[in-house]
UniProtKB/TrEMBL annotation:
GO terms for molecular function: acyltransferase activity, transferring groups other than amino-acyl groups. The lineage of its organism: Bacteria, Bacillati, Actinomycetota, Actinomycetes, Propionibacteriales. This is N-acetyltransferase domain-containing protein. It comes from Nocardioides silvaticus. It holds the Pfam family Acetyltransf_1. Residues 16-167 form the N-acetyltransferase domain.
Length: 181
């Protein structure tokens, strides 16, 4: 089952489009990576990554809509400004990842992208998310706490690991107001 919906969203007064990443779209993966500064790359990949190897770019573009689901946010007719992905680690569990280019960080795009991934996870039958984030990436940790309502968060050697349930309801409810049935 693939979630093939495209939609428009408005962030900071700018209309953006969000749609599934086409399988093998290495150019978009590279374009987003190239717009990430050194700190953003280190936080995203949990180590310094000065350049994206061909093998890494190919793997990141290997989206099939089920095992590896990815969406791209574009500004205007084509400039990619963010990528979000869900990579299954088990039948009903996936690891989420976000990349928001530096000049779009701090505008709420990451929150909207994560909400889209939660909706897509529900449609794909994913029940839980688990992943890691750099312990010094305070904006992402706030996003995880507020949007994912993790059932578990642990810290080890500069990395925060988290587990969160995908809410069964389609509308967003802040973590303090969520009730898991």
């Amino acid at each position: 089952m693939e979630t093939a919906r495209s939609e428009r969203l408005v962030v900071a007064g700018v209309t953006l489009s969000i749609a599934p990443l086409e399988h093998g779209d290495v150019a978009t993966v590279r374009a987003v990576f190239d717009q990430l500064g050194e700190l953003s790359r280190t936080r995203r990949y949990l180590s310094p990554v000065p350049r994206l190897t061909t093998a890494a770019a190919t793997a990141l573009a290997d989206a099939d809509g089920f095992r590896h689901h990815a969406v791209v946010v574009r500004e205007g007719p084509g400039r990619p400004v963010a990528l979000g992905r869900l990579v299954r680690t088990e039948a009903r569990r996936a690891e989420p990842a976000l990349e928001v280019v530096d000049d779009w960080q701090g505008r709420g795009l990451g929150r909207l992208l994560l909400r889209r991934l939660l909706a897509d996870a529900r449609e794909l039958g994913i029940a839980s998310l688990e992943g890691t984030a750099s312990a010094d990436n305070r904006p992402v940790l706030r996003l995880i706490r507020h949007e994912l309502c993790p059932s578990e968060m642990t810290y080890d050697d500069g990395v925060v690991s988290f587990t969160a349930w995908v809410p069964s309801r389609a509308h967003h409810t802040p973590c303090g107001e969520r009730h898991i049935a």
